[in-house]
């Protein structure tokens, strides 16, 4: 929590009632109390109050737009280690809800929503466990909050300054100051209701912290608290939202809200999630299944993995690595002169291959038991698919090589769900977003064709194949396989275990393009699957949205909606994109594929640097595409590059092999099974 000191409040304690009469009025008759809901994130349930507010209080505010609003302090309780304040603000136009997605939200001028003054002179700001809500009704917008202040000071008189409305990007033009004279005990009748917006299991609490309910765009922000000795939260998996029928609600992930101005780490608040509540049937289920925890090792044991090794030395080991209940052992090591990114060669480093359970994702080492953590990294080595850690070590390599495990990160697969029924708004009548027609510029073809007429033949063959496919409305389906080479195969970069498998080096691609009556592409779905058929990546784009698959997150676009364009379907875009600058046509030659099919192979090159450096091998890519001129179909596309900084010649980096291309009038069943998982009709 943030603390600062001002003069003590004790001198003013003998006149709090007069102060209240001047600046605020008791709200017994005027307070518009909000009906309590079991899903209200601002509720104060049963507690152990030492002091509490008697009558609610109210005051007028002037918003950052100089609009008058009413603030209600509905509830205040003082407990042994905290003070909680429940408030509402209303009388604001529903149009104010645009603040939910205001683009200035991350760069606004922020004050803490509230400041709490203690008799000792300390001023506190709300903790990370504070909660805020926004709800649009038919003719009003209601802001609610439950601000928590962490303190051991148990006072019956406090000063509360209200500085800024939650969800706003600017401080209030005119705030409010409340002297709070509290009474012993709890002065409200409370119902013992289990909070449905919070679930706890095995020391992990998953809560719905902040919510906004408005037409077109609603928002929620989850929070995670960890109460496990020696452990802290370091990351989470995918947050999902599903409707009652089991389909996923499309989410847009954004950064956390600026009103959580606190420096305590009791509650992990990072991303907020937007969705469209128009016409979505409740209840909605917010789920999270993976948590990444970092555990500190007390009194770490020394691990001697070698004695005076030499640069380049490799050896197998059978050395136990102490990771508490996780059984781990170092199975091999290799010493390198430096990391590839260490141009100054300041350190040697060792790659340790470690046999660990799948849950372990990072191990943090130090060179002595009380030293700082070394700047190492762990992950899966793609060439062997084994877990390993790169650890910097002293370049002298003298004596015993000793490391200590200071901490390690591991994943907890623990599905947790919160059921929430946000306010439902009428489904809006929405026309599809307009699409801007596009065309392809093939003006560079004439210059290139002078070098080899087969280039012209290939372009015409591909275009004719495209004309045939797009002749009627429907779907054009292309399937292919891609194999990526592993860069720096002698010492490849390690891939975070949590990410390994999401971007495989080899995968199948299925591309579905929906064609309208004019032959334009109006919707595209691209699916990447591993060779077991599991969907690992994908995108779905049309006029209204672009989302990533399988997580169902909206991808931000320049126009804020979908693709924005309608382009004629063109077959062989991989080849046509190389016609003209910056690519250069090099040659065409007869070739064969593995099926002994007679083909023509076209080679292009492209420099990634300005013309003065275009001959550098490390900045040049070569493309080779094989085409069957008779059928007008491409069969293979190969990209060559330097795989390692020590290479002196190009080698294959990417090989994509075409499997099939066909037109179908109906949505393919395998595509429908994917698209039907998501709610997109609002």
Proportion in β-strands: over 45%
Assign a percent range to the helix content. Answer: under 10%
* The number of domains: 3
Largest sheet: 13 strands, mixed
Q: What distance separates the N and C termini?
A: 41 Å
- Please tell me what the overall shape is: globular
The Rg value, from CA coordinates, equals 31 Å
Helix/sheet category: mainly beta
Low-confidence stretches: 5-36
Number of helices: 5
What is the residue-mean pLDDT, rounded to a whole number?
86
Please give the number of β-strands.
44
Overall description:
This protein is mostly beta strands and 682 residues long. The protein folds into 3 domains: 3-184, Immunoglobulin-like (Sandwich), CATH 2.60.40; 196-428, no CATH class; 447-679, outer membrane lipoprotein receptor (LolB), chain A (Clam), CATH 2.50.20. 6% of the residues lie in helices and 45% in strands. It has 5 helices and 44 strands. The longest helix is centred in the C-terminal third of the chain and has 17 residues, at 453-469.
Jot down its keywords:
682 residues, mainly beta, Immunoglobulin-like, 13-stranded mixed beta sheet, 5 helices, 6% helix
Describe the structure concisely.
By secondary structure, this protein is mostly beta strands.
